[in-house]
Every structure is written in C-alpha cells, then in structure tokens.
Amino acid sequence: MANLNMEYYLPIIAMVVIQFIFAGMTLWNRVTLVEGMSPTVFVVYRQALATIFLAPIAYISSRRNSTTCSLNLRSFSLIFITSLIGITLNQNLFSEGLYLSSSSITSAMTNLIPAVTFVIAAIAGMERVNIRSLRTIAKILGTLICVSGAVSITLLKGPKLLNAKNIPSKSIIGSSLKSAENKLLGCLCLLGSIVAWSIFLILQVPAYASHPNTLSLAAWMCLMATLQSLVVTLLLEPNLNAWKIASLFQFGCILYSVC
C-alpha cells in the first residue's frame, strides 16, 4: 500500500523538484548576465553544449534500436521553423527579458505559458472549446488565474533581488533606457518569449510526426538553434570580447542551463 502511494506521489514530487531547478536556473542566469555576459552569446553557448551532449546519445540510441529517420525537406523545414521560434527566438527574448527585468518577474511570467498555449491552440482549432463542459470552464478559469497572478507579481514593487542598480551595456536593446523603461521592455521581451514557447509546444506535434525519434529530433533542433543563434549574435554583437567566458561561475551557469 505504501509503495502504491509513493508511485502516486512521484510525478508530483518530480514536478515540484523541476520548479526548484527552474527557479535556481533563473536566479543563476540573472547573476551571470548582470555580471557582464552577453545574453545572445549565452544562448549560443547553451545550445552548442546541448548539441554536443545530445548528438552522440541520439546517434548511439538510433544505432542500438536500429531506427533511422530520414530528414527530408518536410521534416527539415518543420524542425528549422520549430527551432527558430521555440528555441532561438524564445531563448534570446527570455535572456533579454531576464536581463532587463528581474528573476522574480521572469519566474512569475513563465506561469503564463499554459494559459497562452491554451489560447493559441484554441484559435488554431487544436483545442475544443465548449462553454458547457466543466473541463473547458476549468481551463478558462485556470487561464484567468495564471494571467492575474503573473500580472499582480509583475506590477508589485518590492526589494530588489539580485538586481543591479544600473543595467550594464551588454543589453542589445535596453542599454540606453532608464530603469523603469528597461523593466517594461524586459516584460515585453518575456511576453514575446512566452508566446514563442507556447507556439513551440504546438509545433512539436507536426515536427515529431514528420521525424518520430525523440532524441534525434531534440539533437537536430539544438543544432539548428545553435546555428541560428550564432547568426543572430554575429549580427547584433560585433564585439569579439563578448565571447569570453570570464569565470568558472559563468561556465557552470551554462552547464546548469543545459541540464
């Protein structure tokens, strides 16, 4: 009986642990960016390490299971678009938003992802909306609660947590703005990141259907996101010194974000 109860609570415990891990990542990333690491460079390093980590595992797994998924034009296009929206755009906007706002605002606004995903899926016709259904009513109420909670935490003012008094000049879009303007712009970047992440969750369905190998799909998306983010960084960050990893602390943050 005790084993059955433990099996029932294991998924809940796992979800709680994941939330703690994500909160730690947000705090650590914030410190690293405030210390001077370029947000766009951070995304490139993060995706590059993820590719290096996933590619061998995906290859060995495919060889052992004797499963080969050809990368035709359709699957390549779907993976490219999914990576562009869900990783490159999402991660760059997320890093800029985290850099310009704060770790607490970032954590609060990410709670909008389920709500935004539900709205986009309903608009796209992938989610059935029946006002008379208790399930639909519960989803709508959950969406309203997510939105109101995120907005409340974003608007409330409190003591600074891991915030610099003045934003350094590493931000591409917010270096010349005032503190209040930086915060507003950061929230807008985070909102864009949330929309991109929600679209990413929806796009994974056709992408997986075209390339039905989870590890291979993840490795290809990380590789494409690395190349896409590299192009973005080369266009927006001309300073070659921005590519330097100043400390083991920053390198550890990149590794933690990959895991």
SSE layout:
Layout: H1 2-34, H2 39-65, H3 73-100, H4 103-109, H5 113-123, H6 134-155, H7 179-210, H8 214-236, H9 248-258
Notes on the protein architecture:
With 259 residues, this protein is mainly α. The chain contains 9 helices and no strands. Helix 1 packs across helix 9 (248-258) and helix 3 (73-100) packs across helix 8. The relative contact order is 0.20.
Proportion of beta-strand residues: under 5%
Given the helix and strand composition, which structural class is it? mainly alpha
Could you describe the largest sheet, including whether it forms a barrel? none
How many angstroms does the end-to-end distance come to? Answer: 34 Å
Helical element count? 9
| Number of E strands | 0
Give the low-pLDDT segments: 161-166
Shape: globular
Give me some keywords for this one:
259 residues; mainly alpha
Please sum up the structure shown.
By secondary structure, this protein is mainly α. It has helices at 2-34, 39-65, 73-100, 103-109, 113-123, 134-155, 179-210, 214-236, 248-258.
